[in-house]
Amino acid sequence: MGKVNKDEILSILDGYDKENITIATLGSHTSLHILNGAKEEGFKTAIVCEEGREIPYKRFGVADEFIMVKKFEDIVTEENQEKLRNMNAIVVPHGSFVAYAGLENVEDKFNVPMFGNRDILRWEAERDLERKLLTGGKIRIPYKYDNPEDIDRAVMVKFPGARGGRGYFVASTPEEFNKKIESMKARGWIEDEDVAQAHIEEYVSGCNYCIHYFYSALDDEVELMGMDSRYESSIDGIVRIPAKDQLELDISTSYVITGNHPVVMRESLLTQVFDIGDKLVKSAAKQIAPGMNGPFCMQTLVNDDLEVIVFEISARTDGGTNTFMNGSSYTYLKYGTGMSMGRRISLEIKKALKDGGLEKIIT
Ligand code: AMP
Q: How far are the Cα atoms of 143, 209, 245, 303 from residue 157, in angstroms, in the given order?
């Protein structure tokens, strides 16, 4: 099947009643502030909601319209796409939207105008492409090992499909790597083909900062919107157990995100923060035109040499933006109170509707 055609999307948008635009998204991930922010900017809102998951959206009153579906992926059925188009909907993608609707469906058959650059979603989903975006911008990333025999310091081992950290492990020698792999195979957690695809990278001993940016394609400016750090299970629970008990308990560690803390960085690091944000936007513009568009996030670790090292990126609104639904320390500096990522997206759409430039921000 061919890709969704941008000209077709723009002609659908042309036919929309511009006085009656609805901002829509899938009910999960960051939909609360996407829709709340849209309302604050005067838009109607709609949520595509899986049956049984409607309670938060009803209780918080963020959606004017509910499109109820049996399963999330039904957002791509012809019938639901038509409902969205009939509402003059612009859909805001987020992590769960891409995961549940399916990347291929979003690329090939979701014929509804979307905010952002549809083509960049694959670049954050595939580790090699993600690396290309980062190295193309000469951004410091963890050193990658092609061969487990070369392991000469602490490394983190990641498996495909294990995003969110389930099954990651740490090792410092080839022997330890092999031992842990054998034990995971024995438990049935991984197969030989997973081992062949294991991604081995330098373990960065540092503090976690996930940096949320907004790139305005209309103003050609990268804005710093907020930062969070992750609250991960079981690693953050394990550190509450005294070391001697940890050894006895033999609990396996995982890094599954369960929540986020808002955080700020020491001020002297902000020059690096803006620098890497600008570099990623330039790299994306070169490699996947028109490039970054709207929210993106760099997940980083800051070591004691005060290097900001990026281990992962999101090329759409990231879950950590939920830490600043009423604004962050950084949005306060630029906007005063109350600027969430969701509201910033709607502000951009509102500006394009008024002054032109929709074709730059809709895909
Ligand atoms: P990810 O699935 O890549 O988001 O990683 C999940 C978690 O693993 C992160 O939030 C970090 O706590 C940890 N992590 C990932 N990569 C590294 C690394 N290179 N060094 C140290 N910790 C890491």
A: 12, 20, 24, 19
